[in-house]
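Journal club prep — side note

Before the paper discussion, L.F. wants everyone to see what a predicted structure for a comparable chain looks like in token form. Sequence:
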Amino acid sequence: MTLDEDLVRAVDRAALRLGTTRSAFTREALRAALRTLETADLEEKHRAGYAAHPAGKTEFAVWENEQEWGDA
């Protein structure tokens, strides 16, 4: 993996600040990026699913009595 020097310096500063290593910081950053990508993919699947099969007008009516809006 090739990284530009400015990015490596920024990672080193962040790792030092967090009390970790460059490698550990980078691993966690990559894991976080992959989780973000997975979440975006799942959200897109949900959007596509509801676009293809929209919720019916009464689909969630059974839950209306369960909602709690507070004392407002």
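L.F.'s comment for the group: The chain has two helices and no strands. Keep this in mind when we get to the figures.
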